[in-house]
Amino acid sequence: MSGFVAIVNTRGAPVDRNLLDALTASLRCRGPDRQQVWAEGPVGLGHALFRTTLEAQYEHQPASIDGRVWITGCIRVDARRELVEKLRLGAPLSLENTPDSELVLHAYHAWGERCLDHLLGDFAFALWDGRKQRLFCARDRFGMRQLYHARVGDHCIISNSLHCMRQHPAISDDLNDQAMMDFLVLGDHVWMDKTQTVFKEVNTLSPAHQLILTGGRTTIRRYWDLPTDVPLLRYRREEEYLEHFRSVFRQAVEDRLRCNDVVISMSGGTDSSAIAAVVSKIRPGESLKFGLHAITVVYDKLHPCRERFYSSLVGEHLAVPVQYIVADQYPLLAPSVQWTRPLQIYQPGLWLDLGQQTLQYAPVILTGSAGDNLLHYSPVLPTMAEANPLQTMRQILQLKVRYGKMPGLGTGLKARLRILTGTAAKRSSIYPYSPWLDRDLEQQYGMRDRWNAHWTPTLNDANAQPRHTQLSASLMSPNWNTDDLEMSGDLTTPEERDPYLDLRLVEFVLSLPPMPWLYQKHILRQSMSSLLPKAIIERPKQPLGTLASSLIEQARFGEYRPSKALLKYVDAMAFRKATAGSGNPYLDYLNLRPLILDQWLQML
What range defines the domain where residue 21 resides? Predict the structure, then answer.
């Protein structure tokens, strides 16, 4: 995906053109097709283009349609035709020749900041309004695209690349100790605070937020949240629900296919297989013609799985060629990769090869990563409060016959009891609390309290529907962004797109009666029953399991000696004690975090 940068001198000094050129050049791997800059007075915008849509051949960012409002960003707009109809432009617009950045400019001219209410898709951008001397930045609702920002002295710096941000001379390499400690306790610091990065002076803009810089003052606010008042659909026939789902799902997939070639990350599960089925059905048509490939990661020996068998069924059924990457050969934590933050990616070599093999076929990869999170059912009792109780009971019995088990009751009594008795955190995590933290930093940042807060279940918002509360936690808590994981600036990676994070599909799921449609992904299985092999439709959910447990023997804790940099965060004696043959697989899994952090620190 394309890279971009914006710099503003808040005291009005002219922008350093040489610096702007250098920052834009640092984005070359993000956008290998073209790099361009624009500067006027105290403002400079840079863009590095990666052509991932058909219309990108007409892209020339930084872009303007009037010479006064300029934009740079990584932008993919969905429902383009519907957006143009709402804009009611005076002159006709040829969508085939119109890049997404131009649509955002038209939307801003029509609605100002409220343009975000009308934009669907994955985006992060910086827009300079010369008329108002204002910088307007935004990030998409689910955070599929990244946006960093920093205010250092008289400088405001915006980019979607942490590597680019670090090239600015005003930004120091000072580390954010809170983020380091959050990683050691939770495995990724963004679980507790999505606004912080590993560097003190750089922050991220949260998903569904906008940033405005005007008069030297920065304002950040949320522009969208999951709606709490979506009424339930009341169709008479089950087929009407299925037809509606197929229509919305097809829209979500088709809008992500504005490219010549595409790869599907296909496990053989229902989520990715459903995407493949819809793409295959679209492909023979006249409106979209593209090359289609699938890639499946398999473990044959180290961590045996059945992904090869199931994905081959889908590939043969849909006539989609499948390439298999055998993951057994990739060692633990090797080779060393300079991530943008410490990450529990146990086989970096696999991650690198997956990206590079994808790029051999296409610049875009479709995933179903959010399928589990979206199609998350509400338990029985909350469902009965929203729907017909007798009908719900009948559906429960039918689901028991279909899937062989009864849906959970969902009374919430156990969670409430744990909250009231103060034992929630003790029972909500299967992982122990990190026993080797540096005591001074542990107390300074209140790590025990942060760990408890993360694992303590919360009571439902009284004003929200049960399905809204569950879906909000399921979709908004994870960090879906994968477009800036590697920090060296030397690697081009494919653009990831997930149809399950399409707003239209999310709103449709919010309107579904959870029972029966969200239990065991019933809506997805039933709607795809004529497009996929029966074995896929009936395949139960089979998590890969804790891969770290299969790799843990390679860790060699006894031979490991922490570096001086790590000892700021970890008590060496406590770590040696914890790794001395604990026999606890969850503790062994936890003990990998200091190794990962140490490796990351040594690469800075």
Answer: 3-222
